[in-house]
Every structure is written in C-alpha cells, then in structure tokens.
C-alpha cells in the first residue's frame, strides 16, 4: 500500500502481478503530510489481507488511470473501502 487512498490488488501471491489502485471514493492526505501515516494505517486495518473486488471508474479528468494507478471503487464484503474508511474515522483530505 502506498498511502491512505492507494492499494495494490491481485489474485496471486506474486506482487509482480498486482495492480496499483487509487480509490475513487476516498481522498486521504499524502503519506508525508499531516495525518498521512494515520490514513495509511487505517487503510491497512480495513483492507490488508482481505478479498477486495474493484471496478475501474473514470476520474475527474475523464480517464481511468492517473499517475500509473487505476482509479477504482473497491469493495470488501459488498461495502466500498471508502465507506469503510469513513466509518473508522480515517483522516480525509488530500489535494
């Protein structure tokens, strides 16, 4: 995981096959900004090691990819990770 709104997903234990995803429905502080480390820890608590299903969506720029990451809504047990992060009080507010 990169920061509080990016994660890698894949269906293999081999990280070279994983895809980096930027959550479309949650904006976290950058890792080195205030509360960035806490946002990353919240994402790890919510998502690390759990099965997530992601659907690519178009971002504000109309593209499905930004900074080499796929923009997607990812769900765990039917709930979006963005919603789960808000429920646990994860820090919000990136750029």
Can you describe this structure?
By secondary structure, the protein is α+β, with helices and mostly antiparallel strands. It has one domain (6-87): Beta Barrel (OB fold (Dihydrolipoamide Acetyltransferase, E2P)). It has 2 helices and 6 strands, in the order ββαββββα. Strands 1, 2, 3, 4, 5 and 6 form a 6-stranded mixed beta sheet that branches. The radius of gyration is 12 Å and the shape is globular. The mean pLDDT is 90.
List the helices and strands and how they pair.
Layout: E1 6-9, E2 19-23, H1 36-47, E3 53-56, E4 65-66, E5 69-76, E6 79-80, H2 81-87
Parallel strand pairs: 2-5
Antiparallel strand pairs: 1-2, 3-5, 4-5, 5-6
- Alpha carbon gyration radius: 12 Å
Q: Multimeric state of these chains?
A: single chain
Major sheet description: 6 strands, mixed
Integer count of domains: 1
The CATH architecture category equals Beta Barrel
Please provide the count of β strands.
Answer: 6
| CATH topology category name | OB fold (Dihydrolipoamide Acetyltransferase, E2P)
Q: Mean of the pLDDT scores?
A: 90
Uncertain residue ranges:
none
Element order, helices and strands? Answer: EEHEEEEH
User: What is the helix content?
Assistant: 10-25%
Using the coordinates above, name the CATH class. Mainly Beta
Number of helices: 2
Q: Roughly what fraction of the amino acids lie in strands?
A: 25-35%
Global outline: globular
Q: What is the distance, rounded to the nearest whole angstrom, between the alpha carbons of the first and last residues?
A: 19 Å
Helix/sheet category: alpha+beta
